[in-house]
Amino acid sequence: MLEERMGDCWSRTKDQFDNLEKHTQWGIEFVEKYTKFVKERSEIETNYAKQIRNLSKKYQPKKNSKEEEESKYTFCRAFLTTLNELNDYAGQHEVISEDLTSHIITELTRYLQELKTERKSHFHDGRKAQQHIESSWKQLEASKKRFERECKEAERAQQYFEKMDADINVTKADVEKARQQAQMRHQMANDSKSEYAAYLQKFNQEQNEHYYTVIPNIFQKLQDMEEKRIERISVCMKKFADVDRQVLPIVGKCLDGMTNAAESIEPKADSKQVVESFKSGFEPPGDVEFEDYGQAMKRTVSETSLSNTKESKEKPGGKTKGKLWPFIKNKNKSPKQHKEPLSHRLNDFMASKPKMHCLRSLRRGITLNSHVRNLIEGSVPEDFSHLPPEQRRKKLQGKIDELSKDIQKEMDQRDALTKMKDVYIKNPQMGDPASVDPRLTEIGQNIEKLQSEVQKFEGWLAEVEERMPSKSDSQRKSGLYETQNSTTVSNNCAQDRESPDGSYTEEQNSEVQVKAQPIPTPTTTTEFDDEFDDEEVLPTIGTCKALYPFEGHNEGTISVAEGELLYVIEEDKGDGWTRVRRNEDEEGYVPTSYVEVFLETNAKGQW
């Protein structure tokens, strides 16, 4: 059979041709469906990465004082690391989405167009071959019918001739005419036979070529096209899995980073940080004395003791010099307590009115003073006087460090402008030296203002450190509590700190009268190095590449083109300009943001 001779080829009859057309169309639809599936997966990865990034951004610490305080704790730093790793984790999902789009979706979309075009071409050739064989068949059928008709006409003409020849009444001329008609019909039948035979031979040859050559070739091409389609689907499915597999190592590193961040949490260190953060600098209050209500047990004291007792009673009624912080040192008084006879202390203990709730009164005084100050000023005091001593000292020190950094930055800018001015003086063609004077004046004023601020905060810091008890004082006082009656000392301290109305007060001019110690002002030299001499060429400390074009209209600048390579002879000193050289004669300043600088390793420490 024909189908057995064609083997595994798709070559079949006409109905199979139609079935193959349907099958290949279904294959194209499958590719479109798989492409849509990958596209939706890519969109899911993109949306997931976006949501993860938004989540990480949402919980990123804000730039305020509270977040800076939280960054001191290991668990807060671990959470920040987790957010950063989560952000990188989201980036890997973006990589998955990009790879799916570029390696699968784009490739399949382009392949679908090629597949449709190839399929259309093959089936067009197949339909053309079918139409050709059908046309040959129609010609064969027409020649066959014509041959059959001519044969019948020749037979009827022969019968008519024989009938006329047998009839004696028919003239010889009629008989001859009938004979010629019969011969003509026989000739036409023979011609039709020859034509039919030729068409038949031609059709058989074309049919043989159609079913054994043309159609098998077309079907073979369709079969190859289908196998390539299936192979392409296989490759895309493999890439679909490889895209995820390629990011697994980086995802694993992100997860390892989260794990390491969690393992870096130190509970004891965080608990110690709580102590450092909230340590107030207050000394604990003394012991509360015993209140004896038994009149019968009241001891008899001497006249001297009674007089001392009266004096101690009258003293709180006079001018009270209340302090906000308990147990602070007064610079006008010696830190040592006056040594009194033990009998005097016992008399004070027995006769003076007890002052209880020392810590409660302290808290009330702090709260009242803080509220009043905040209501008057409307914000946190500049000297941080609303804070306990230890916290106030930390805040003041941090403010001083911040101002010192600002001063250093301004001084760096002044040094850079001073060097530029010196260059202009020695090389007038590069620029006008007077053009930098306004900026130097402004920077000098800023430095003076910042230095005055530093002196002010230094004064407040000195006051706080003077008032805060040292470790030696604490040890001395602790020894005193062990040897003497702690209740008496506590009572005296409570009397000194508490105002008549039971709240703690603060001297109005205690901070204003403190004279700030002058701090050494950083001096800047006006002398310049020999590198600015005209006779000596500045050495190169690296190279740079221009990221953007710069025209350099101002004096002292140099024009550069995008992508141009130059030599760096002086890096940015904080003023935003870098000094470069094109050759031995052309050098000048360019904006630092316009170039990418590559400094030499051994030259970084020279400038």
UniProtKB/TrEMBL annotation:
Compartment(s) of residence: Cell membrane; Cytoplasm, Cell cortex; Cytoplasm, Cytoskeleton
Keywords: Cell membrane, Coiled coil, Cytoplasm, Cytoskeleton, Endocytosis, Lipid-binding, Membrane, SH3 domain
Stretches with biased composition (Polar residues): 481-494
GO cellular component entries: cell cortex; cytoskeleton; plasma membrane
GO MF entry, a single one: lipid binding
Pfam families attached to this UniProt entry: FCH, HR1_TOCA, SH3_1
Chief location: membrane
Domain SH3: 539-600
Composition bias, Basic and acidic residues: 465-476
Coiled coil: 137-181, 393-420
Protein name: Formin binding protein 1
Lineage: Eukaryota, Metazoa, Chordata, Craniata, Vertebrata
Gene: FNBP1
